[in-house]
Amino acid sequence: MATEADDGRLARVAARFTAWAERWIPDAYVFALLATGIVVVASFFKLVSGDKSVGAATLEVVNVWGSGFWELIPFTLQMALVIITGTVVATTRPVSWLIVRLASVVTTPRAAVAWVALLAMISSWFNWGFSLIFSAMLAKEVARRVSTADYRALCAASFLGLGSVWAQGLSGSAALQMATAASMQPAVRTIVAGSANQVPNGVIPLTSTIFLWQSLVCVAIELVVVTVLMYFAAPSAGRAKNAAALGIELGPSPLDAQAPPNRGTPGEWLEHQPILSVLFVLLAGTFLVATFVNSTDPLNALTLNTLNLGFLTLGVALHGTPARLMRSVKEATPGVWGVLLQFPLYAGLAALIVKTHLNETIAGFFVSLSTKETYPALVALYSAVLGVFVPSGGSKWVIEAPYVMQAAHDLKVHLGWMVAVYDLGEALANLVQPFWMLPVLGLFGLKARDVMGYTFLVFLVLTPLVLVLVTIFAMTLSYPL
Predict the structure, then answer these.
(1) Which of the residues 62, 216, 338, 460 could staple to 438 if both were Cys, CB 3.0 to 4.6 A apart?
(2) Closest CA to 149 of 22, 236, 252, 250
(3) 356-373 burial, b for 16+ CB within 10 Å, e for fewer?
């Protein structure tokens, strides 16, 4: 067994992947540009093969891309606020105290990386938005305390919840959509229901998706496998590159931060008093409580908007004064630049895939190759492949649900399991797609190439494991639910 002083085979493989990624993988923005180019060419040939002239196909591709470029503006702002509000909460003294205590559990480089990976996955099962920021702040605190740990491996570990179990948890978008009647079009519900209404009203409860024992076992297996993998893949102290070696200033722990200066002017007096913060918390808190109480399904009330408002409200309450809150927001803002620059590119890319029906062509190819036994694995693989180009699980499922679920009916496969299978594949894509890494990378001061050697290694291990699990567990489930 490898020791802290002697890198094992996995650590050497991870180091080679990291070195390869540092040399060959471009920045996430360039990745988005390359993906756009690939999809533009594929969409063009799709239209030409459908008897459109070269000129008409070119014009349609350009128009679809341009009209879709700004379609994710609300989502872009929501994701920027996930970063900001998550950081605001994580930098409050109570949460910082918790992070410091958790960071104090480990003292060796490999244990530090494995510990961050485990907590990142567990927290992501409960909520991916919180996990994204909480795990990054935890990793930075661990980096401060275990200076011999590899900073790149810690960053990669903090992201692994979104590359493994998040979609199998309480914030898994596809499962929530299928359990909430109003979140899908009536025509899609009709398809899900089946010709003989095998699935009443086309609604699949969470007990038939994320709370299936098969789903929970998959989560447990992934937790164990990824934690052990990251332990042995992390460099030993002699080979690790900490933040200082990478030229990155970690700054003080949030617990060591001094209170904002108060010059004592009448205007600044109000900034350093909790009066206005209390009023905001009462107003926002009342709205949030009413929203969840009045919702027929509380899970349906858990949206990015309520999540962000909840985190902001908690941040305001825990910071206490406007001055502390404003400083926290200011310090968090630089981490959103990558989101603002790249999300419009992904919006245009997604518009092309959907509006030129390229997604149907890809899905049709996989479905044509499948049988009842192989269909779950093929859907997981398809979800992962398309997720590389369209990294948005919820919006993708709206488009894909009709033909994925229709094929499940045709092949007599458990429909709830197909939702879980889709989510398992969707998470895998995040390991090789830098889209969801952007918030973490912004907080760490790293680039995608710095961490993708580790995430790619996890991808290589998890992909065959997931394909085997979804195939075996499908045999334990009966059609339709």
Answers:
(1) 338
(2) 236
(3) bbbbbebbeebbeebeee
CB atoms near residue 461 (< 10 Å):
17
The pTM score is 0.77
For each of the chain's 481 residues, which pLDDT tens digit applies? Answer: 344 445 567 777 767 776 776 677 667 678 778 888 988 999 999 899 888 899 999 999 999 999 888 877 887 787 788 778 877 887 788 888 899 999 999 999 999 999 999 999 999 898 777 788 889 989 999 999 999 999 999 999 999 998 899 888 877 778 877 887 766 667 778 888 888 889 888 888 888 998 999 999 999 999 999 999 999 999 888 888 888 888 888 877 766 767 777 766 777 888 888 999 999 999 999 999 998 888 776 765 766 688 789 989 999 999 999 998 998 898 888 777 877 888 788 788 878 877 887 767 776 776 778 888 999 999 998 888 877 776 665 556 766 777 788 888 888 899 999 999 998 888 898 888 777 777 778 778 888 778 888 998 999 999 999 999 999 999 999 998 8
